[in-house]
Design goal:
The protein is an all-alpha fold and 398 residues long. It has 2 domains: 178 residues, no CATH class; 127 residues, Ypt/Rab-GAP domain of gyp1p, domain 3 (Cyclin A, domain 1). It has 19 helices and no strands. Helix 12 packs across helix 16 and helix 15 runs parallel beside helix 19. It is globular and about 60 Å long.
Length: 398
Amino acid sequence: TAVFFHLFHRTLKVILIFRFLFLGFITLLSDFLIFLLWPFTVRSTLQKQQSLPVRPIIPLVARISDQNASGAPPMTVREKSRLDKFKQLLASPNTDLEELRKHSWSGIPREVRPITWRLLSGYLPANKERRELVLKRKREEYFGFIEQYYHSRTDEHYKDTYRQIHIDIPRTNPLIPLFQQPVFERILFIWAIRHPASGYVQGINDLVTPFFVVFLSEFVTEDVENFEVAALPLDTQRNIEADSFWCMSKLLDGIQDNYTFAQPGIQNKVKALEELVSRIDEDIHNHFKKYEVEYLQFAFRWMNNLLMRELPLRCTIRLWDTYQAEAEGFSHFHLYVCAAFLIEWRKEILSMIDFQGLLMLLQNLPTIHWGNEEVGLLLAEAYRLKYMFADAPSHYKR
């Protein structure tokens, strides 16, 4: 009887694994069909809504606006005081970057987010008088790259890179016209050929969108999902594109080993997450072991896309306020955010008692209605974990 039940259990697990793989194949097939049919689905908003398949996925964008966007309640006295402090720091002849990081950690007001991101990313100098000159030079340099390299996208050496970018752009979010712009292809292609050690890797296409949206917000007061970028003056479009390229480049400079051959940076971060969770919450860790769930099966995407596929874009933008305020926000602090994010779903995780259910949950976590409050709590927990473990790494290693 024991042997029979053991064989029955193993057979059932194999069936569930094949069922999970089959569902994954169906999802990929659905994405492919959406890509093929894209030209026919943009005729009208009503037609799009009627033709969409119902699928349990978290969209990249679920209204980009945050608490500081137009249409929000008037600022409180505290919010106005924070905004005034930012304006004071930014107006200084030499902005105190450490002080700017300190104030940015808990969120940057929408009105000053674009200039603050440019400063914190290292794209703009702290010296106010030099900023316009630097912007002019860097923007001209970027479009010099376009003139020098972009025509080579059809060359034999680069055509596979361009083809992959061309395929991935619609996948960033096929229902948001904003992200179907040729600008993204140019940014990603130029970055790829200027970084031959890694080249273009799927996932990088997501990382340009927060910068593009934030820099666009300087000129658009309403939600930008359906904004027609072509309506802006050409110089403005070019400036947004160049600034997005340089800031994304600065971000990727700090995590480039995530995208080199075999992506060793991600492999190491997933392993570190497993070790950390095993010390923080042994119940969750043992639950994964019991049902043979590997961290790589869900956390690879968390590291590769910096949680962008798990959160609405408005939350990613708020998260990146803090990442840019941290000394190694995108490379080091992100590990603790992922650990806190996993523990956030502790109850739901422990309630799942099968392999398929666990993976479906972990790959489709219900964050669609998240906003600044939820992200703030997530970051506070991540900071607590960092304080407990970052300076004593042996605490999370067995």
